[in-house]
């Protein structure tokens, strides 16, 4: 592209031409604002923010990072806040951005490392939790938990996955949620609960079985709000991903042992747990995907710098003059472009037909993007040599993070099967069309009195 | 997608949402017209058109197919004619369609087999040749050759590739083109000249060396118009591709032996050959790509029908219930979607920045799409068993045709290197940005008096 | 390898060291004899043998090629005859070679094109048919059909696959074989019957259903000997693979219409058809695999010559100096070596444990080798440009032939599933071992009074 | 394989048949002894050994693990000690095992986790260092450092890679090694020095430039023995690999600042550094490869257990009944078998032709095996879900370790290029053979008076 539109200079993507006219003036302005904020505030602060995470195990999970609070204040002032929450679906608290518009912003955030999303209050799992509370929370629940979340004053956890349980099939979940008088009593053994051990996470949304004998399998579950300091909430340990503990949030093993909360902490109603988690998933997957594309683009940028670095010459040649480096870079470029277009197309599909009408597109993005990004990162790591695997570059940590995305919200296989099955549903119509066509073709042969070649 | 827009029902692609608003009313109407024509006229005629190619070697290359003439007449009447020729670039003869609009139509044509493009007078190599004559031809040349080509009365050949020469580097070309008085004398040994042995091909555009000692390597070549019946034009044999002779056009070995044409047959001027072939390539590659996507989409549709066919059950199960078939189909779907978006994005880029400003996008499409389509076809062939490799299905022939696209207009490697090199040009700016950023990051660490983690 | 053992100079493989000591003196001598014969007699004759296949459709399938008869006479004289028939299993007619020894010879044959196998009377489907007759034929059947086959005087066909039937599940087969008095009456519609239209093929082994209601699904089938000139044997057309008809043998559509043969033509007994075809498959697959490796090795050799050819330089560089060619060649080399070792290992496994005890190894070879060889060929074709896809090189025809091997004797998926299922059978033992180990590990922790890290 | 030979029951590999007869009785006995030791002593102790690594950063790098000393004593008693050191090359201290025999043992060790190799005193980098000292060390050097290493009393480091230097081209190395009177003074900045921060590592072999202006680039380097407690040896920090610090050994950044050692600490002689590191590499790569295969085999075993675990059922099905799991397992099996055979073949090649005569085979193994093993691990991790990426399974840590092998001892690209270039050297001979053959083929055509098909 001769002269990239300034707004996407960050990623130099040609897909901008396809979507530019779908941005409102507010969308464009916000994107420009965000890019400016990320470049001039967030990126310069990433090293400091990393350094402000204590290495001491005593304090590692208990510290607020001053630089982050400063960034959050600046972002709020710029109007860059809760961008994920679509006004179309959440009129009261939402921001007037489409899924497509926010998707582009998610790439910008993803390319800027972990703190960017938090700086604009768009971090998982808070985003999904805020959507749940905004859509399904009672006024009291919203006042107590949604508002501080929207303000970035607290953080939250979503407790679904269970240890010793194949919980990618959510009907397998065993945590017990039962009413006892005016209280709800919760007992269960969860893990991989992101942020649960972070001192700032004040509220857990816990999915459990309230009606295990209901013959409708998807009406057995309920979601309950559990304040983090409720007696019986036992934070066991952070799970590691590869060798990373992902402080300051972490992914935690948590045991809920006879945890008691008031009846009012039930979300939406008994047996509505499944309905809630279903609504929570679609757009979030797109955000994950676009952040991943930002990560991949960033890795490619690093790789390009490395292979052209004169101090890295070996045997008298630049790294890019060796082996298959140039071809590797070309493949990275092509794979990133193709994947980005798939996600943007899915985001637009959601805008047009809601998440339900975009299931195939979401599923495609969900299984294509993480693998694509992992491949790009792997090539970049290879270009960096051992340093690329170490704490001195961000690549290996990013790889670990992306690797979880081939499992989170369902392993690849689930989405692949879903797309395949959806395609198979076209069989009947296709076969009917083919049969009708063959008849016409044969009729024409007969009419012209010509014999088909064998 | 819940309800596909009728206009793209043929391909049920979600990318339509991304581009719909870039179509003019004329573009949409023409697309709908074309889809209707293809479904109701072209597809029913494919078997007949195939049957009308004689198998007898004596007549195989000499026959006009009546059904094709009928289709051409119908297409012309519907206004579906020369759709490839953009009015923006060729005001006199062109059609007011953008590259993007025609790209979608090219997919429709590609999915309908060989005769569809010819029926609407959009077949290679005529398309490129008409562009050359429309842009660079003298009025006399246009009157004599362009008009009958535009009318679909004759066909043409483009003679560039040479036997015994590594002609993917066009400076290697050896055919001699020299002036002798008022005549041009041509001597050379070409091959893979598509259509040259087809009786309907009346004119060859021949690239040769007119000034082999010119120190500017790209000013040594000229293009000359050679009527097919000029003495000395020797049609040697059709080259086969995986055993196919691709009648009725074929790809020919041709020897030009002391061929003499008037001086007026020179195109544009002495030494301008390279300039002409450069202008000829960009959009044509996009058309090839979109036709390939039509082929891939078609193969997927066939595969879906096969694996759901109850008469193909083995061991009590449908084919789709075995092995990795469902996953294969999902990957086909995802790969087609991603590739289509890449090509559409490149087409739009051409519309916005001309072919020169879309070189990276064109190159990406050029190396991604054929390999993608071959993979889809290979999976489809596997689903069909041996029948999938035979004359009873169109898959193997389509595979052979697509396989040539990894070589035509430059092998994959050329385009891959081009994209990689273009990416490397970003190195300087990226490195400067990184260095500036690192300074800011370190300044901030110092300002806060925090030490970075090792 | 510094100095390759002369005996494997043809393939320069390092795997020779692994197997050399498993060759008997006779095996080594025969291999040397065969390599000499192939290099000095077969390879010089390949072009002539190809030229002796008439292109005229009238005579194409009816001609014996004199050069082939000459080669066969020479081979017989040298003792290079029926090498596939193991004396261990067929004491009367067999040759004292192991499967491993013959496997190496099959690679030599495969690398020398189609005529090599025929020259030493080791062509499919005759090889399998001779094994059937040698093992299961009555003395009369052997005298009438086996002896002329062993002498290379006639050829044969094996009629199993059926049109309109998913016959990769052989229980689906519909051809009817029923007794009527002293005759057997056969009615059925077969295709892909290799050699059936070759004038030299005098005998068909036809698999059909003789007892369709037998509740044992694998006792419903019988095999009958049908002389090719029996009334009712209708040779319909040759099936093409890609665009090749594979003359002079071809793969034929054949209809058996009220074909009557004497009762004596039943092989082995009523309902024994499945048993016969089971015994026919194992070693044959290994031979196919080794021939494929010969083809791949040959393609790599051609590729190496092409990319170092000074007349193929582009932009001032050898082809191997462009793009990823050197890496492509390295991958070809590595893939060929790995695949060859897998097949040799399977061959040895058969020698040690019979085909039944080598099922996993055979299945691995069966799905790994053809795909490997296709990848090698594809890279070679790419190096040759369009010429690589044409009749001027052997690559595309070899590709088409190898592509059928991903389907013949069961599609890849069947063998992949078989290996996967076999692996799963190890689950019980592995799980028991793991559980026992965990107990020991925990006991040791307790004994040392140490707590495991979380 | 029906009944696996007990000696390879651990890996149930069919390659045993290929190599069994190349084992001496001592080799077989030692292998059986090793397998017994690993199963009954090492594997039960792995959890304890892991628990004995302190998590406290103060003590983490300073602790000897009692269980390991116990295992070492048991191994020594069983005669399972220094198995890597071939008597053929090191008559004084070596063990009478071939490379092939030890390769199989390396797989056994690799499959049993980190401590197995150490338990039998076969850990890198000690193995390579002992080989250097045994081959090139002076009697005094051997007495002081080799003997305690051979006895497993101390450990060692090999300091080659440098920070800020593209040290995969060893001529780039900058560490200065210069003589000053009777001393050698060393100044340099190394990193990725495995074990350098481990309290047990008493001696560093440091590669530096002693003669930077020598016009022979490979005579500029020397190797010096530096006791770990020499003043000026500064242990900076452990490098992490995917978040792992790989305690208790670790990979360290080390600065040598005016480190002074006696002249006697020079190894072999001035300018012989390159010669030494060259001799150090070949067999070591094979050991790495076989250990990797052990890791891959182990991962496959774990995967098989997981996908058949009834407690992991989702949607009513075992994991292996979903998606492409069975096919994934089959591919793992096939890839492991093929890779193992390649390494065994390379090991045998070393035995026959020394490392120099096996360079191609070693290079192939070096680039094929780690990628293969990473693919197997990746599939296994995917089967285990998030748990597979965590500290509760060994898979992610193994992945990180294997990932370094695509870079250690030269990145993949180096070995790929080496193999490709070696193949290209066959071009001349192949081309001559082809030309000779073509002449013969044409002569035969002429003799028979037949025209070749075009």
Automatic annotation (TrEMBL), chains A, B, C, D:
Keyword Flavoprotein tagged: yes
Keyword Oxidoreductase attached: yes
Lineage: superkingdom: Eukaryota
UniProt keyword annotations, A-Z: FAD, Flavoprotein, Oxidoreductase
Transmembrane stretches, start-end: none
GO annotations of cellular component type: cytoplasm
GO term, biological process aspect, one: fatty acid beta-oxidation using acyl-CoA dehydrogenase
InterPro entries according to UniProt: Acyl-CoA_dehydrogenase, Acyl-CoA_Oxase/DH_mid-dom, Acyl-CoA_Oxase/DH_mid-dom_sf, AcylCo_DH-like_C, AcylCo_DH/oxidase_C, AcylCoA_DH/ox_N, AcylCoA_DH/ox_N_sf, AcylCoA_DH/oxidase_NM_dom_sf
Acyl-CoA dehydrogenase/oxidase N-terminal domain segment(s): 48-153
Listed cofactors: FAD
Domain Acyl-CoA oxidase/dehydrogenase middle stretches: 157-254
PANTHER family: ACYL-COA DEHYDROGENASE FAMILY MEMBER 11, MEDIUM-CHAIN SPECIFIC ACYL-COA DEHYDROGENASE, MITOCHONDRIAL-RELATED
Protein name: Acyl-CoA dehydrogenase NM domain-like protein
Organism whose genome encodes this protein: Sistotremastrum suecicum HHB10207 ss-3
Taxonomic lineage: Eukaryota, Fungi, Dikarya, Basidiomycota, Agaricomycotina
